[in-house]
Amino acid sequence: MECVFGMVGNGFAVVVADTSAVNSILVHKSNEDKIMVLDSHKLVAASGESGDRVQFTEYIQKNVALYQFRNGIPLTTAAAANFTRGELATALRKNPYSVNILLAGYDKETGPSLYYIDYIATLHKVEKGAFGYGSYFSLSMMDRHFHSGMSLEEAIDLVDKCIMEIRSRLVVAPPNFLIKIVDKDGARQYAWRESISDTSVVPSV
User: Fold this and answer.
1) Of 12, 28, 84, 166, which is least packed with CB atoms within 10 Å of its CB?
2) 15 in Cβ contact with 57 (< 8 Å)
């Protein structure tokens, strides 16, 4: 029941993901970070099978870092998205990854951008996108309220509307969400939206 969505605003991109690690009917934890900082100005929000999600996003992160180490310049957001798409396409007919990705980044020349990459290696540059069961509600909210050139305050307000809609309409909605943004100042965590917190269980004596 994963929920990952994102959008592009005026000078920034924001991505949001639930923080539930779930298997079958079990919730293992509710503070899992599904948004990886790819480099100083890129974010990868991923959904899918836990093993594939962690392994593939780490693989992309290390290869992007290797490219910068070898060449002295970082990949652009478009180049990173095309590299990611190429790796998914290569694996598709060998050992496919069950992972869907929203890749957000900021480049000095082109500004913020958001790329939609699914598990069958479809790549699109978008202004808004979503994956998971939460996409049924977040996409409809973004269709209604999103507009180009949104300010950060407007975007966060829309993010909160999407989260509230998911929590109220999805039968097994995840309780917690993590929000990260990327702009000219870099990629960073912006806020948590929590309804429950992980607490240590003290065994009874």
Assistant:
1) 28
2) no
C-alpha 42/C-alpha 78 separation (Å) is 11
Give per-residue pLDDT as tens, 97-124: 999 999 999 999 999 999 999 999 999 9
pLDDT score of 201 more than 70 = no
CB 19 within 8 A of CB 177: yes
| Both tokens assigned to 159 | 């993010």
What pLDDT is attached to residue 14?
Answer: 97
Which of these, 146, 100, 147, lies nearest to 120 by C-alpha position?
100
Among residues 150, 119, 135, the alpha carbon closest in space to that of 52 is found at: 119
* CA atoms of 101 and 109, how far apart (whole Å): 23
**Closest C-alpha to 103, from 57, 158, 49:** 57
Q: Are 36 and 61 in contact (CB under 8 A)?
A: yes
Kindly state the average pLDDT of the residues 66-82.
95
**Global pTM value:** 0.90
